[in-house]
Design a protein that fits this description.
globular; Dihydrodipicolinate Reductase, domain 2; alpha/beta; 9-stranded mixed sheet; Rossmann fold
């Protein structure tokens, strides 16, 4: 069984998944479309795809079974709803959406159509998240009561190039995207292990001071001048977690951009840029090697020619020993992975969900729990840290 797929948005990230879906035995013809037709043409040529569509509307009018949305991050919500209502299964890059109403509309569309929706959150398969998820399931933490998740990616390390590539002449207006509206790499890594959800938040934003026209309210289409933000969340059932979304930070995000910590009554886990430790009341165990992806590709590989140099490390990792690859297709064995080994699993999750009619791991309901906390946290930061309640759309249906 296989299905046809159209990739919407042929930018730097789309090629990594075009390559995997092109190899996957569960996917048939793959097409591409982009507002800049030459990018769709190049993606099609680079990965031997079946062809291009002239527009998103043309994709929706076609008999393609599914779409994968890799457009600008603030555009996802409306495009996803339109695709679902047109009868297409949907894979969406992060974030799910940028407002509560957009999230609600996606969940309603999934519920009413019965189609597959999946958000491709890389931190769900971050080795630290996978490891913590296993330890929580085994009860090794005791009662988990606190966690931390950071997405620390400095603008100087790839984001300037990425926004210039996607934003054209007006790129500075979009490079000011509020950090807490892109929360899933930090929130998702925590909640991907700790099966709870956030119920309230207090957040603080740090106004930018570089003065280069980025994070400048007079330039920003989002009226945003926060380059760094910190949020403290209360979770259902008791406990809390803190996340950092930093875009001006002295930290080697090219080594590790997401990092996590979990604390329980019996044990804890902590991760830094190059080391990871399991700790209990008797001592410390270095688990770094267990969580370290093995490099699968050089950052200088020609297949990465269209990716900004500072971002290439994110696309060249293999898998870590903690990853269970037994369910992945054989065709993925010697193929580049990305974001600490997550891409293979995300690509296969979507194919499996569509072809079996089952819910993907990061389904619409879980995607809402990864995304909405950041949206409310940004509102809190704008209100000087006022504690705000976070709505919840509930668990995914059985």
């Amino acid at each position: 069984m296989s299905f046809s797929l159209a990739i919407v948005g042929a930018g730097q990230f789309a090629g990594q998944f075009a390559k995997l879906w092109r190899l996957h035995p569960g996917v048939g013809d793959i097409f591409a479309t982009d507002l800049l037709p030459e990018r769709a043409d190049r993606l099609t040529a680079d990965h031997d795809l079946a062809g291009t569509f002239p527009s998103f509307d043309a994709v929706l009018d076609s008999d393609v079974d599914a779409v994968a949305v890799f457009t600008q991050r603030w555009t996802h919500g409306p495009l996803v709803v339109r695709a679902l209502r047109a009868g297409k299964h949907v894979y969406s890059a992060v974030p799910m959406a940028v407002t509560r109403d957009e999230i609600a509309a996606i969940i309603e569309a999934v519920r009413e159509t019965g189609l597959t929706y999946m958000m491709g959150e890389t931190s769900h398969y971050n080795p630290a998240t996978v490891y913590a998820r296993e330890q929580i399931a085994a009860g090794a933490f005791g009662r988990l009561f606190y966690a931390e998740g950071d997405y620390v990616h400095d603008m100087d390390l790839g984001f300037y190039e990425a926004y210039q590539y996607s934003g054209g002449e007006g790129w500075k207006s979009t490079a000011s995207y509020p950090p807490l509206l892109y929360p899933t790499h930090s929130v998702g890594g925590v909640l991907g292990a700790w099966r709870t959800h956030a119920v309230s938040v207090s957040a603080i934003g740090v106004k930018d001071e570089r003065g280069d026209g980025v994070f400048d309210k007079e330039v920003s289409q989002f009226d945003n001048d926060f380059s760094n933000a910190t949020a403290l969340f209360e979770v259902a059932g008791g406990g809390s977690f803190r996340t950092n979304e930093f875009r001006r930070v002295g930290y080697p995000s090219q080594i590790r951009e997401s990092r996590f910590r979990f604390f329980g009554t019996e044990a804890s886990f902590e991760q830094l840029a190059t080391v990871s430790h399991w700790q209990d009341k008797e001592g410390v165990k270095d688990v770094t090697e267990h969580l370290e992806p093995k490099r699968a590709l050089s950052p200088d590989d020609p297949s990465l020619a269209h990716v900004a140099p500072a971002l290439r490390d994110a696309f060249t990792s293999g898998s870590a020993p903690v990853h269970d690859r037994s369910r992945l297709p054989e065709e993925f064995r010697n193929v580049t992975n990305g974001h600490e080994g997550s891409h293979h699993f995300l690509a296969d999750d979507f194919v499996t969900a569509v072809n079996t009619g089952t819910l993907p791991p990061v389904n619409a309901w879980l995607a809402a729990r990864y995304t909405l906390p950041g949206i409310v946290a940004h509102d809190s930061a704008l209100k000087g840290g006022e504690r705000l309640d976070i709505p919840d759309f509930g668990d995914a249906p059985a």
